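Request: Could I get any protein with tokenized structure?
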Amino acid sequence: MDADPIYLEPQGYSVIWPVLGFFIIFGLLVWSVWIWLLTRAPESGDGSGSLPPAALLKLRRDALARIDEVEAAVAAKKTSPRAGHHELSQIVRGFVSKASGLKAETMTAADLRERGPAHLAQLIEEYYPRQFGQAEADPPSFARSAKAARDVVEGWS
């Protein structure tokens, strides 16, 4: 039984494999660029695009009026000191955001320490225990907090 060995002739490569490899590599490159763009550090709002003096003056008046309203509501016991501290924080952060372009409304205290003005970071850190602490903030500390908020708003240039 002497049989001749069977030889198969060479097979050609299909074009699908190089094309598939190209799309996989291209997809990985697009994905890595997309991840890089998403994880870039946010642009700092350094206040270079600040408001004109008249707009800043109106913004300051509005913020100070709101601080007075919140302080009066806490003094009249219509609002708790804890809720008052939340409102003061929102007022000051909103004022700074509009006045400077810094996204202070969404920044943590660590972000403010790193990229924001020092007096704003200090004020927000002072509010944290009164906003989120276990014990309710007392009304006398609220008067100091309202004055500190006024100082930040009045001193902003």
In short: The mean pLDDT is 80. Residues 53-155 form one domain. The two ends are 103 Å apart (CA to CA).
